[in-house]
Amino acid sequence: MPDSMSEYLQQDMECEGLLECVHGLKELDKDVFGVLAETGEPLTVDEIADAVEKERSTAYRSVQRLLQVGLIQKEQVNYDQGGYYHVYRQTAGDEMATEMQRLLNDWYAQMGQLITEFREKYDDPGQATPDQ
């Protein structure tokens, strides 16, 4: 993973790189997301664990991270005789893109504020700024 924004901008970023950059996904998280995206069907944690060849508890932690950032959704399936279990599916692409755009806009606003503060702190009083 690149260390600086300029390194990010110099590399060819793919969709998975975008998810890593915006959400800080680990390799396993990307694998779990990929399984859910490829199948297009809701899966249980056990099915996900089998697909990524990890222990159930490890897969569950990854599923929880993906839920937390909104890349997947949890659904409850009820048994006819009582009880239930959960399945997970990929969030709709448009929803994910809208949320990433919102995060980017928030980040952009925060960076703009930091740059303004930087300019005010380090501005040379003897030189005119481009705004003047």
- The average pLDDT is 82
- Please report the number of helical segments: 6
Oligomeric assembly: single chain
Major sheet description: 2 strands, antiparallel
CA-to-CA gap between the ends? Answer: 39 Å
Would you count the extended β strands for me? 2
**CATH topological fold name of the largest domain:** Arc Repressor Mutant, subunit A
Order of helices and strands: HHHHHEEH
**Portion in beta strands:** 5-15%
Provide the spatial order of strands within the biggest beta sheet. 1-2
* The CATH superfamily title of the largest domain: Winged helix-like DNA-binding domain superfamily/Winged helix DNA-binding domain
Q: Determine the structural class based on helices, strands and strand pairing.
A: mainly alpha
CATH second-level architecture of the largest domain: Orthogonal Bundle
Any idea what the radius of gyration is?
21 Å
CATH class of the largest domain: Mainly Alpha
* Shape category: elongated
Number of domains: 2
Helical content stands at 55-70%
